[in-house]
Amino acid sequence: MNDMAAIILISVGVLFNIFGCIGLIRLPDVYNRLQAATKCVTLGCCSILLGVMVHFGISGAGFRALVAIPILFFTATVAAHALVRGAYHFGAKLDKRSVKDDYREEVK
Amino acid sequence: MRYLAIFILSLIFWLLVTFKFTLPNIAAGAVASAITAAIFGRYYFHGVGKFLQPRRWLWFIVYLVSFIWACIKANFDVAYRVLHPAMPIRPGIVKVKTTLKSDFARTLLANSITMTPGTITVDIIGDMIYIHWIYIRSEDPALYTRMVTGRFEEYIKKFAE
Question: Which of A70, B88, B90, B134 is most buried, taking the most CB atoms under 10 A from its CB?
Answer without folding.
Answer: B134
